[in-house]
Every structure is written in structure tokens, then in C-alpha cells.
Amino acid sequence: MAKNPTAEPKYTLLFINNEFVPSVSNKKFATVNPATNNVITYVAEGDKADVDKAVAAAKKAFQRNSPWRKMSPLQRTDLMIKLCELMARDKHTLASLETQDNGKPYTEACLDVDYSIDTLKYYAGWTDKFCGDTVPVGYDLVTITRKEPVGVVGQIIPWNYPLLMLAWKWGPALAVGCTIVLKPAEQTPLTALHMAALAKEAGFPAGVINVVTGFGPTAGAAISEHPDVQKVAFTGSVPVGRLVMEAAAKSNLKRVSLELGGKSPLVIFDDADVDFAVNVAHEALFSNHGQSCCAGSRTYVHEKIYDEFVSKAVAKAKSRTVGDPFDDKVLQGPQIDNDMFTQVLSYIDSGKEEGAKLQCGGKRVGEKGFFIEPTVFSDVTDNMRIAQEEIFGPVQSIFKFSTVEEIIERANNVKYGLAAGVITNDLNKAMQYAQSVDAGSVWINCYDAVLPQTPFGGYKNSGMGRELGKDGLENYLETKTITMKVFNQTSD
Questions:
Q1: Active-site residue 259, yes or no?
Q2: How would you class 140 by CB atoms within 10 Å of its CB: exposed for 0-12, middle for 13-18, buried for 19 or more?
Q3: Is the dihedral of CA 386, 392, 395, 400 positive or negative?
Q4: Rounded distance, CA 226 to CA 215, Å?
Q5: Residue 414 CA: distances (Å) to CA of 306, 383, 387, 421, 437
Q6: Active-site residues (predicted)?
Q7: HSE-CB of 141 using CA atoms within 13 angstroms
Q8: Does this model's pTM top 0.85?
Q9: CA–CA distance from 328 to each of 104, 106, 108, 291, 394 (Å)?
Q10: Torsion sign, CA atoms 355, 360, 363, 369
Q11: Phi and psi at residue 27, in whole multiples of 5°?
């Protein structure tokens, strides 16, 4: 059994100006364990009044002569590294809270903590490395550019990778010197509140980091439309992303970065090792219970190896253990809540109704919690709902294809463009596909290789802007141009 599997949540209030405080309304809401459907605890429910307080604290912390603004870059580095050290100290507590709140297996939650630490460490190294330029403009003018933090930023994160998405958002914002108002998903607020406590312990000045727990239509909307928030970063669904953009446009034209949905194609050519391809495709889809925006949810297999691949993919899915996420042998926990549970089952019904062949799974597991059997469909065609819409659950759809040109067209024939993969020993085929597919990330002979150093984001309805890597800094920076006239001195 994993260490500290049932850590009690210590923090349930809003975190504003380095203090845990109740919401203005004194309302609370339940956060529920999706494996048991039991209430873990009750958390303060923030809304517009609380967002106003948090933004005011962040704005004050960003004032020109504030302790945060007067810090040197390497002092920011030290604070971020200290935060990483505290995360490592509390690794098992953070992982336990994540598993209770989200339902992901505890071993995966531990990996998420490690990756979150790596992400913050990566950005801790960027505090003194984003630079302007000297621009040659003419004989009697000198022009330089400066990169400056945008100011107060709002960050709204999803429930599928709660701690990891926090690290993706906090890392670049803190590295460049912004101040933050974060709203975690209402389903998974506990790790964000624990991280707020660690940020205070690390020594971040008051107001630099604020966490407002609550719901999207209230707290999330208040962040998106607040006139003193200069940039909002959102990860979530396409419909909500549109609302964020609309609110940003109607308020102060704040800049927006969006990481939205996906319907990513993983293409397997006939020269691939079938066993290897089955394993890659299995993890590409079933990892995190299928609740991943870049999941390889369209598995395209060449007709020459199609039947063999389907047979082995079904066997692999049937062997996947589902159950208590604190059991070290379990690979798949529950879906996040009843809404997602019901949605996934409705997609499975749709697949059957539209003529796809249900090879395995498709039903609920047990009577408690939101568990769904690992599900595999074959004979899927591109016009089916399960081929076009994001399922966000443990449902693998397997398609058949014949040629490179055909599969490029079919891979691009969806409204999303977040990620794609290809498995082949033919370098030319791999690069032809990689250069032609509409996707922000393309993986060759691997999948989901998302690293702190590598930009991540999507084409089309999958969003705008990039997170991670050097590109992730640009979301939080303004460019200022300074030009000075040089007067020629003449001797007397």
C-alpha cells in the first residue's frame, strides 16, 4: 500500500494575500472522491467579491516598488526552487490529495508531482534569460527592446491534471515576475490550496499568488472579465474557452491563451512491430482513464495488420485493472464525476447505434464510484460521433486505412488539432505525415512525450498560444521599445 494514502486536507479556505480566508458569502461546496462518491471535505466557495479581493492583492503586489517587483531574477529563482523542495517534502501528501480528489491511481499521482516539480525547476532557470534586443534603426538613434511582465494574470485550470496544470501555469508567470489569481476546477481544489500554503512557506510575498476556489460561471467568469487582470490562461473545453475569449474582449481586451480539446490521430503503418504499436496506442488512449486532451483517441491502423492489431488491442484492454486507485495493482480509477461518467457511457451507446463493433468493455464497473470498463471499438468510420467528438474517457476507437495520402486527409478531417502520432520504421513516411498533419505536437514511435522544455498547444479548435518551453514565457510578457536620439558632440 502506498505511503500516506489518506492524507487529510489541511486547507479548505480561499488563499488571498498570503492568508487563508473564508469567502465573502461564507458559502462552501463539497469536493467528492469519485472512487467512492463520498465527500472528502467542504471548500470555500468564492465568487466575484472574492475574485475582486484577490485581484486587488495581486495588483498591489505588482506595484512598481513592491517587494516582488524589486526582487532580482535570481531571487525569484531561489523562491521557485524552495517551492520545489517543499513539494518534494510533501510529495506523498500532494499525491494522496490528488488521488482522493481526482481518482487517478496513486502511483500516477506521484509521477504527476515529480513532473510538476520538474516544470517549476525548468522555469526557475528562466528568470534571467528572457531578453530584449538592440535594434539598428539609424545613425543618430539607439533602440532597445525590453521584455516586461504583463502584470496580474488569471489562471483557470482543469480537473484532469490538477497539480500539473497548476505548475504549467505558475512556472512561466512567476519566472517573468507576474502576479497570479488561480481558480482550480471545482472538482479538484485540494492540491491547489496545499500549494498555496507551500508558496507562503517558501517565502513568496503577499499577493503574488492567490487561489480562489469556486465555480466557472461565478469565480471563473469574474476572473475572465476583470478589468485589472491583464492576461487569462485557460485549459478546458472549447465552449468554455469561447466564453473566456468573449469576456476578455468585452472587458479590457486582456490577452488570452487557451489549451482546449483534442481528437488526436495515432497512425500505425504496416511496417510497425504490432506488439509495440499496441502498447503505445493503449497508453496513448487509456492513460489517466482517457481523460486527457491529447489522448490518441483515433487509432488508425493499416489494413495489412488491422485484424492482428485489433485482436491484441482487445486483449490488452481486457487485462487493464480497474478499481481502488490506492491499490498498487490498479491501472485505472474512476471518471471524475457523474456528468463525465454519463457522457462517456452515452458515447459508447452512440458508437454501438452508429454501427461500430464493440469488441470489449462498454459497461459500468461496480456499484459505487464512477468506474467504466476499458472499451474498444473496431470498424469505426470517420463520420461517427465517436470519431469526431471528444469522449474524454476510456474508449479506444480503431479505424482502418490504406495509403499515406489517404490517412493525412482523414487525420486532418476534424475540428481539433492538438496532437498526433505515427508509428513506422519508414523515416520518409513519418516525416511526410508529421509535416502534413494539423497538430501542435507530433510524436514519432512514441506518444504523449510532453516535457517542460517542449512547447505544447494546438491548431484549430484546440486553442491558441503555447505552454511550456521558451514559448510559454511569451504569454506573460510585453515587449517595450525604447528609442533614444544621440546628439553628436562637436569640439569647441
A1: yes
A2: exposed
A3: positive
A4: 16
A5: 22, 10, 9, 15, 11
A6: 259
A7: 9
A8: yes
A9: 12, 7, 10, 20, 19
A10: negative
A11: -75, 155
- The DSSP element (H or E) to which 20 belongs, if any, is strand 19-21
Query: Letter for the amino acid at 342?
Result: T
CA-wise closest residue to 486 among 146, 148, 144, 145 = 144
**Cα separation values, 412 from 343, 382, 433, 434, 460, Å:** 25, 11, 11, 12, 10
Contact 171, 195 (CB under 8 A): no
Sheet holding 179-183, edge to edge: 19-21, 14-16, 209-211, 179-183, 152-156, 231-235, 255-259, 463-464
Residue 342 is placed in which grid cell? 454519463
pLDDT tens, residue order, the chain (492 aa): 445 567 899 999 999 999 999 999 999 999 999 999 999 999 999 999 999 999 999 999 999 999 999 999 999 999 999 999 999 999 999 999 999 999 999 999 999 999 999 999 999 999 999 999 999 998 799 999 999 999 999 999 999 999 999 999 999 999 999 999 999 999 999 999 999 999 999 999 999 999 999 999 999 999 999 999 999 999 999 999 999 999 999 999 999 999 999 999 999 999 999 999 999 999 999 999 999 999 999 999 999 999 999 999 999 999 999 999 999 999 999 999 999 999 999 999 999 999 999 999 999 999 999 999 999 999 999 999 999 999 999 999 999 999 999 999 999 999 999 999 999 999 999 999 999 999 999 999 999 999 999 999 999 999 999 999 999 999 999 999 999 999 887 765
Give residue for cell 505544447: 456
Q: Are 147 and 479 in contact (CB under 8 A)?
A: yes
Query: Taking Cα atoms as reference points, which of 65, 59, 475, 49 lies closest to residue 228?
Result: 59
3-state secondary structure at position 423: strand
Catalytic pick among 45, 108, 259, 474: 259
CA neighbours closer than 13 Å in the CB half-sphere of residue 131 = 5
C-alpha span between 222 and 13 (Å, rounded): 18
Helix, strand or coil for residue 34?
coil
Pairwise CA distance, residues 87 & 119, whole Å: 12
Report residue 199 CA to chain centroid gap: 20
